[in-house]
Amino acid sequence: MTFPDISRLPKGAVFHRCALQVNPPEYEAQFRGADALEDPPQRVRAIVNGALERGISALAITGHNDAHGAVPFRKAAEGKDLVIFSGLEVESREGIHILCIYDEDVGPDQLGRFLGAFGIHNPAPSAEASNRPFGEIVREVSSQGGIAIAAHVIGGKGLLRALTGQARARAWRTSELLAVQIPNSVDRLEDKYLKILRNRNPDYRREHLVAVVNCRDVVTPDDLDHFSATCLIKMADINIEGLRQAFLDPGSRIRLKPQASARRPPPEMLALGWKGGFLDGVRVRLNPNLNVLIGGRGAGKSTVIESIRYVLDRSPVGEEASRGHCGIVNDVLRSGTKVSLLVRCRQPMEQDYWIERTVPNPPVVREVSGVVSQLRPRDLLPDAEIYGQHEIAELAKSPTRRTSLLRRFISDAPDATRRRAALREQLAQNRRAILEAQREHEDAEEQLAALPALEEQLARFQAAGIDKHLRERGLLVREDRLLRSVAERVVPLRKLLESLGQELPVDRTFLSQRADDKLPSMDLLSDADSALERLSLDLESVRRGFDAAVEAAETSISRIRSTWAEREERTRDRYERTLRQLQRSGVDGGECMRIQKEIEALQPVRERRELLREHLDEYRSLRHTLLQEWNEIRFSDLRALMKASKTANRSLGDRARVSVTASGDLAALEQLLRKRVGGRLKEALESFRSVGDFTVTAFLETCRAGAASLRNAYGMPRQAAARLAAADQETLMRIEELDLRSTTGIELNLAGQADASGDWRGIEQLSTGQKATAVLLLLLLDSEGPLIVDQPEDDLDNRFITRSIVPRMRDAKQRRQFVFATHNANIPVLGDAELILGLTPVGDSESGRATVLPDHMGSIDTESVRSAVGDLLEGGKAAFETRRRKYGF
Question: Is the pTM of this model over 0.90?
Answer without folding.
Answer: no
